[in-house]
Amino acid sequence: MATVTNWIEHLSADEPAGAVYPGVGTEGILVLIAFVIWIGWTVISAKQESDELNKLARRKPGPNDWKNNVTDG
What we know:
The protein is mostly helical.
């Protein structure tokens, strides 16, 4: 990795001294991995929320059942 002491000379050079940060060239792979993780997270979250709502729907709560969860305060 290149050590840059003067950015103006480094950026205006015909051929820069080299990579300024580690991992140059891996950006595309990292974006692809992040996209796959994001899609996976979305699918898993949707499934968990759907299961929770189905479980709640099977209980068939009435319109006043929420009052059982309110504490006297």
